[in-house]
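Data availability (excerpt). The following record was deposited with the supplementary files.
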Amino acid sequence: MITIIFIIAAVFWMLLMTMQKYGGELFINPVVGLMVGALYHEEDGEHTFQILLGLVSLTFVWYNE
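Predicted structure:
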């Protein structure tokens, strides 16, 4: 269990460092219901990575110039 928490924290840290490098944004939104999953989308230099953990949605957005 602790290994899973460590892996999630490491991925979160890497995403934050990527966002800082490319001038990205982090959105935290509540989810109605219970969801688990991930989504990646790339369009016209805009990258979106969304993680759904239980009742919280973390959306990371960064841009390539």
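Summary of structural features: The chain is about 30% helix and 55% strand.
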